[in-house]
Amino acid sequence: MGGVMEDFFRQLAEDAPRWNFIWMYDERQQGKILSGIWMTIKLAVACVALSVVIGIVGAWLQGARAAPVRLLVAGYIQFFRNTPPFVQLLFFYFALGQFTPTYSPDGWLQQPIISNVGWAIISLSFFAGAFNVEIFRAGIEAVPQSTQEASESLGFSRLQSYRYVVLPLAFRVCLPALNNNLVNLVKTTTQAFAIAVPELLYQSVSIWNDYPSAQNPTMVLLFVVYILLVAVLVFGMHRWERAMRIPGYGT
Amino acid sequence: AECTNDTWKKVMERGKIVVGVKADYKPWGFRNDSGELVGMEIDMARDVADTMGVELELVPVQSSNRMQFLEQGKIDLMIATMSDRNDRREIVGIVGPNYYTSGTNVMAPKALALKEWEDLRGKPVCGKQGAFYNKIVEERYGAEIVAFTGNAEAKQALRDKKCIAWVYDDSSIMSDLSSGQYEEFEMPLASEDDNPWGLAVPKAEEQCVFGQFMSGMQYNWHRDGTLIELEKKWGIQPTAYLEKQAERFKDWLAE
Amino acid sequence: MLVVRWVAGIPPWVPVMLFVAALAWPAIAAAQVRYSYGDATEALWRWIPFLVTSGFFFNVLISVLSMAIGTVLGAALGLAQISLYRPVRQAAWFITQLFRNSPWLVLLFIVLLAFPFEVTLFGTVIPIPDWTKAVFGLSLPVMANISEIVRGAVQSVPTAQWEASESLAFSRRQTLWQIILPQCYKRMIPPWMNWYAILTMATPLCSLLGVEELITLTRQAMESENNHPELLVPFYTFALLLFFAYCYPIARLTIALERRFAVKL
Amino acid sequence: MISLKDVHKSFGDLEVLKGITFDVMKGEVICIIGPSGSGKSTLIRCINALNDIQRGSITVEGQEVHDPNLDKLELRKKVGMVFQQYNLFPHKTALENVMMAPLLVLKQAKADVEQRARRLMKKVRLEGKENFYPGELSGGQQQRVAIARSLAMNPDVMLFDEVTAALDPETVKEVLVTIKELAAEGMTCILVTHEMGFAREVADHIYFTDRGVIVEHGPPATFFTEASDPRTQEFLSQIL
Amino acid sequence: MISLKDVHKSFGDLEVLKGITFDVMKGEVICIIGPSGSGKSTLIRCINALNDIQRGSITVEGQEVHDPNLDKLELRKKVGMVFQQYNLFPHKTALENVMMAPLLVLKQAKADVEQRARRLMKKVRLEGKENFYPGELSGGQQQRVAIARSLAMNPDVMLFDEVTAALDPETVKEVLVTIKELAAEGMTCILVTHEMGFAREVADHIYFTDRGVIVEHGPPATFFTEASDPRTQEFLSQIL
Ligand SMILES: Nc1ncnc2c1ncn2[C@@H]1O[C@H](COP(=O)(O)OP(=O)(O)OP(=O)(O)O)[C@@H](O)[C@H]1O
Ligand SMILES: Nc1ncnc2c1ncn2[C@@H]1O[C@H](COP(=O)(O)OP(=O)(O)OP(=O)(O)O)[C@@H](O)[C@H]1O
Ligand SMILES: [Mg+2]
Ligand SMILES: [Mg+2]
């Protein structure tokens, strides 16, 4: 079965020199593609999780009483919102990367505490996190003052009213925006390419550098895989949104 | 096919030759801090223009687009650190004696005392995206290539000890080592894949006036020691190849 | 857009201070290597005029052109998305989703590598330089997002407005152009500007494909300065600063406009 | 002039109108009252062809409204409608709101239209507010602009759907005065209202709808005092 | 039991309350009426310490409300408040809405609270709706849940701020019936309302406010017929 497929694509590569689906019959290239996809998924999952955490913590810090803390969060958001994520990646990895401690399992080769994958996760998470902070804050603001007043006039403490009333509502309000930002984040993981993180784009480019004839099929594959990944995320988030829906609330 | 000499005529008519050169390959082609393109290959291009008695326009090219530019007529001549390989000869007109050769080698820390290519097996090795020898090093010696988009990044990664070696052209590595900035590093291996470098004219001109002319230019450069001089001027390690060629072509005209 | 609103709350000196700190920091952090950070910073100063005039200028040019093309195409696509004619609507929706959900970098790679270097139109050969392809590649996702903005803005106008015009005997075309769209422009401007900032920040991606812009030239500059690792911090910091200096005012203007329009509507 | 015969209308499975029949003569003012969700708005929107119907017929001046070949534009020139939420065009001034339809739809000359629009603004007691944007007017004022906007098309019939429900008690009065004047001038009016006092004062005939049917009707003199249907009695008893 | 003395309250430069003085006895029901913006809501919110005051004093059972050392919790256990917009917690069911405060604030045992909450739901005639979310209830039902929610804290006083203004005429009745029952049971109530008929029926005393002062007051029997102040007369005349 597998053999038949392989032969078919091998033949196709000969008949149509621009359509060499090399990863359909060459094990080494296939391995590259699969490991690339796997890396992309790991990258996406890690970044999504970390950026949400950053968003929540940031939104909480923004409500802090201490002005310096608020300014710090403000600066963080401005920096990451108004500079290209691509340059952020380069900056994080090469500029800051010089100053991170390393450990050395063998004589010379020192493993940095934070690998390029690690830096990609950090950099991209901080990038998306800056947006998440804003999203969560907006969600909290969207909860009507009157709802808080109602809980206050029932004798709730500030914390109780936050914990039981404001946050559950705020979270539902920001899900769509969060959803959008996370989709964006998954798309942005391709930029880790710049610091040689072996994700799907990196592997694809290296394949078509080595085998120019495989360029077209590999591009098609790239396109399809990313659309699928995004689709899975969107689908999952929609399911979650639906599960979180309150009967009769909202539309 | 018959020679139409289109490119030659075009250049002469408008009094300007457009040459594709590298902008990110010191010291062959790079920018000085006012943004002008300079380097050994640029000097060669200028000599060509002067000899033809036309003005010179330089266009920076990438490894990935240099051949298409020539095919397309966007540039008339390409001198852009291109390895002379058979598959490339089918697309563009690579003429005359090669003006340089380089091999592939690695820059590695002295501390590791690498001896042979096999020592790279299973280890991370930094490289530059798009280099044709990445695949060779990877498949022949089992190194794990970590390819960056630029040399600055690759070298930085090596210094940050994120890989055990940086694989690149031996001539480039030599000039880095001789700069005194890389004292803990060496180029320990025997160069692989001796690569002649070729300049190229459009395929149609290969056997015609322009091709002949460029071929002649190169013979002359070899014969009168221009290349060796330029090599010195740009701080490139003297190569045996150029000396041999100079010797060989000394009496070319006499022949 | 909630995102943007908040930005206005920050006094402008905050980010400026942060940047000053960021710039000063490497100098502090650096132990003296043979090639010092001082040398690197000095090298940066020499390169700045070139980087700005030949590099960043192209980022701006590419972003402006992509935005112009993306806006025109996106507006048409957005209107197609609310067409009464179902196949048109579905096709427009599909195109929008396709380009909205694929990574910019992938689109750029595809456009730059898979598209020809020249096209032959009516016998004349028109060369397509790299940067125009980049413009095209970047205008695709912009188009898709503008399309969504247009659709969203039109749909955010209460249906009551449609009904009111309907009951005054307006035709669909009249309703759309005279009643609905005029109410949309204002609410489309802030997200539109937001996308312009996002687009500008995507232009460095072109450097991966060799298009000459700030990051490409930054690399070339570092090459010319012998690729000293010490160059990385000052040069990339400078690039970040430059983008920030360009995008931050846009963000502030966006909010300012958003506020102004919010009052009126 | 308007005639409904056995009108049925469903939204999906929900039958909202279950056979409504009545006639309105030229110059007559009728009020439709009834509990929330009883289909009053739906009924009035059907007359204007904003909703289609499943069964029965609605004719305006002898013309079938739900004839698929009908030129809806012609119908809407004859029938004006005022909504509960005013639905003014927020990007146009009050005067422009009034002028737009005659200019764009009837393609009348600008000078004429403007003159007429100013007259209408006066009629709804809004002189001086011509260049205000809807957002700058109070609810009652907006509602009167909406009435003027409908009148600008010179309709034969005006439909009012709970035009005062969104207003506070004091401004309700302003709007009702305007409608009363219109009625007095002989405009054919169909009103949906919760203001019983107003209905009593202005209507020639009152219809009470519940769950999609007309339960009771009659002239105001007898309607409020002699209602026979228990549902109507209950409804009226709730009015404080 | 509640006593206001010369209460002044400003928002920035705008003085909203300009010296309000009145007393409410235990078990008394008073209604506050007046035009929009006259400060009725502000007044009632001050009693609940949702707004602070600039001058004067408000005491509830002898305790000064605006004493900075006051335990607001204690106050709010005594004073329940129902808002115009209900302000139910949309992510909790009706029953959970009622149970939340006793559980979280008073830390009472869950079983007790649930039992009491069910009783209260019955009292406001909402048996069977316990597990509905607010969004699934009609306005009148939501408002009654809001009343039950306040009652769950066993307050001594209930404040109602235009609790029927957002409701349609028929559902107004349901809510008013509930309030009437409360009043009949001897709960001290302060109501802000536009429903004159209701005020007349239920109030022991009516206060008319305008521009931050009490212009007129009296028992309903005389208030509606013998108003002496011209502003009051004008306001009352507008009621159809
Ligand atoms: N577009 C629609 N789709 C589905 N159901 C609808 C739609 N419009 C109205 N309905 C339903 O039709 C019924 C009648 O609605 P309608 O608005 O005509 O009532 P109404 O008498 O005007 O009530 P109100 O006094 O509250 O305005 C309601 O049950 C409503 O839920
Ligand atoms: N938080 C606030 N900040 C500034 N001004 C306010 C605030 N709350 C109320 N006001 C002003 O105080 C005045 C009185 O408001 P209040 O809500 O008490 O009036 P009201 O009598 O309840 O009116 P309505 O019948 O419309 O509810 C109004 O002019 C209002 O604009
Ligand atoms: Mg209705
Ligand atoms: Mg109020």
From TrEMBL, chain A:
* Keyword vocabulary terms for this entry: Amino-acid transport, Cell membrane, Membrane, Transmembrane, Transmembrane helix, Transport
Boundaries of every ABC transmembrane type-1 domain copy: 37-232
One GO biological process term: amino acid transport
Q: Name one GO cellular component term.
A: ATP-binding cassette (ABC) transporter complex
Mind telling me which Gene3D superfamilies this protein's record contains? Answer: MetI-like
Tell where it localizes.
Cell inner membrane; Cell membrane
Give the residue spans that cross the bilayer.
Answer: 37-61, 73-96, 116-140, 218-237
- GO MF annotations in UniProt: transmembrane transporter activity
Membrane topology label: Multi-pass membrane protein
User: Which family would the database say this protein is a member of?
Assistant: Belongs to the binding-protein-dependent transport system permease family. HisMQ subfamily.
**Know the name of this protein?**
Amino acid ABC transporter permease
UniProtKB/TrEMBL annotation, chain C:
Spans traversing the lipid bilayer? 12-35, 56-84, 104-126, 193-211, 231-251
Transport as UniProt keyword: yes
**Annotated NCBIfam families:** HEQRo_perm_3TM (TIGR01726)
PROSITE patterns, sorted: ABC_TM1
> Which species does this protein come from?
Thermohalobaculum xanthum
- The source's domain of life comes to Bacteria
Name-wise, this protein is Amino acid ABC transporter permease
Which GO terms fall under molecular function for this chain's record?
Answer: transmembrane transporter activity
State the family it belongs to. Belongs to the binding-protein-dependent transport system permease family. HisMQ subfamily.
Q: Which GO BP terms apply?
A: amino acid transport
TrEMBL record, chains D, E:
The record's Gene3D superfamilies line, in alphabetical order, gives: P-loop containing nucleotide triphosphate hydrolases
Q: How does it sit in the membrane?
A: Peripheral membrane protein
Its subcellular locations are: Cell membrane
* UniProt GO molecular function: ABC-type amino acid transporter activity; ATP binding; ATP hydrolysis activity
Taxonomic source organism: Thermohalobaculum xanthum
Q: What protein does this entry describe?
A: Amino acid ABC transporter ATP-binding protein
Signal peptide region: none
What SMART domains does the annotation carry?
AAA
**In the UniProt record, does the keyword GTP-binding occur?**
no
Which Pfam families does the annotation name? ABC_tran
Q: Where is the ABC transporter domain?
A: 2-236
GO cellular component terms? plasma membrane
What keywords tag this UniProt record?
Answer: Amino-acid transport, ATP-binding, Cell membrane, Membrane, Nucleotide-binding, Transport
Classification lineage: Bacteria, Pseudomonadati, Pseudomonadota, Alphaproteobacteria, Rhodobacterales
- Which InterPro entries does the UniProt entry name for this protein? AAA+_ATPase (IPR003593), ABC_ATPase_HisP-typ (IPR030679), ABC_transporter-like_ATP-bd (IPR003439), ABC_transporter-like_CS (IPR017871), MetN_ABC_transporter-like (IPR050086), P-loop_NTPase (IPR027417)
**Family, per the entry?**
Belongs to the ABC transporter superfamily.
